[in-house]
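Re: the 660-residue chain
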Amino acid sequence: MLWVRALLSVLVAFIVALGPFTVASTSALAATVPDTPVQAAQDVVAPGYVQGKLVVKLLPTALSSQESGPQAEQGAAAFHAIDSLNSLNSQYEVTEVSSALAIAATDETAKQQGLDRIFILAVPPDTDIWQMAAAYASDPHVQYAEPSIYLTLREPLPTEDDPPEAAVAAGPVSPNDPYFSEQDNLYNTGQSGGSAGADVNAPSAWELETGSASTVIAIVDTGINPEHPDLQGKVLTELGYDFVENDLVPQDTTNHGTRVAGVIAANSNNGVGIAGMCWGCQLLPLRVGTSVIHLASVEVAQAIYYAATLPVDVINMSLGGQCSELWADVVNYAYARDVVMVAAAGNLVDFVVYPARFDPVIAVSAVNRNDQFADFSSFGPEVDVAAPGANILVTDILGGIRRGSGTSYASAIISGIVGLLRSENPDLTNSEIRQILRDSALDLGRPGFDRRYGYGRVNARLALEEALEPPAAVESPASARCGCILGDLSADLAPDQDTDVDAGAAAGEALQQPAAVSALDTLYRVRDELFATSAFGQEITALYYRHSPQVAYIAFQDAEFRSMLKATLETGIPYAMSALNGDGEQIVDQEVVDHANALVAELAAQANPELRDDLRRVWQAVELEAFVGQPVHALIEHLGQLSTIREETELRLPLVVADD
């Protein structure tokens, strides 16, 4: 029954409490300049985070101005000098404390944003990193602490893998690259079964601009093969860096970065291979992983920071995962330095991944050769624009041309267009460029903005025309920050804005659903108006803040658990409102108990021992089984009267999971 599932929202609130679900992530130890040692990323191990590393950012008040200078030795020494942190260092057997980023003494922007207060702590590999993160985050000198998590962006298999027959096609500007005739993402005449005009209008754009060698696009990825015939002379190997192997040779070993590079700026009109979006742009290779699922987020953050310290115009990030506070810090830094950041919205999940989810980053979804939303593309309210991403011709690491599909290539196309815009008008700011892309896009889906296409599929020609006269009204993005996982899920509950409003009553009803912000406001009210009024509720809230990064990690990694949370939010908000308004007459039945036990058991099964034990104690105190057949207000009254979470040696819970 609908109300049964809905009622779970109130119960879940008492289980995990409410507040900012900060999703932490990061990876290996090091600085971000090529002449500074960087530890290699470890191999991926279950459950997906790097063992033995923790990222900690101190509050501004933690270090005096004399102690927080740019040199790593000063920062690390000051870190050890704080008694409470030194005690934690001893407790967790910290073997090394070093700066996460190498901040130049003259980099006032970095210091103003506190990048010199971020440290990497090395500990034994068997350390319970979630417990450690929670302990450091609770210290009054710490702004955030997060473990090191690997990215999870997956790409769909292309429907074709063989290259097409080489031929030359005609267009307003027709490069003589032999495979250009099949690049329907750039110039679609229906030649591959697509729809004529379902492209980014590249040939018309090239009439105005083909790209300048002074425009640099950094590719944060798996490296680039600079010897590919279509990339020779385009790759700034002397400035590139490998943050995995700690050397100056960011050579691609797994293909993804090389494929992305060709889409952005393959040598064009050279009688070889394919045409890149920005013919003349230069590419900066920054290797941060060994494959698209072996990218560690500290290396990604270090690469973003490093690129932003150089005269780089665009940073392309065809990668993604859950949120990292360190990512948020370096994204804000790069945006402050007027760098345009472009990222893939994600594949095969129904939400936009980070860093695309951050406001200062241009989030790109994918369409196919018929201007239809690609079935593999992620979507959500964070999408800015769409670009072709299905069956794209790419430069293969072995030197040939293949096909690839994914928002990685849609992001690459946008980065190439941004390169053209910066080449045409170097004075354009990153805010102006984002506005131009939005304003010049072809509206698809429902009229106006929608969660699948954003503001529409990009049109390179129209964008270049607008670049000559920057837009008068420019929307500046909010600072990047990690969101609340419950808020993220609430946003994803918004009705599908691509739904045809004339398709039937169901669509009409969907459009009447409460706004996502109202759902989140209701959850905060539960925290502030119900939890804050009892000792039991306050204790659960404290536990929530201790464990929320781990719960968010599980929600991001586990689609089943995430679906359970989303379903609870979707159906439970009206019942949470009923409880808040004093009307709790719905009867608790066994089905409610079964659903609640299943949800908590799923979380407990994946939790570390500390969270698992706290879940058991909370659920023992709730005594949900005892309220079967009673009205909800009786349960809420019972919870309000509890003074603390009871300690029990014998646990009689269906959710109990054996300790490892």
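The mean pLDDT is 83.
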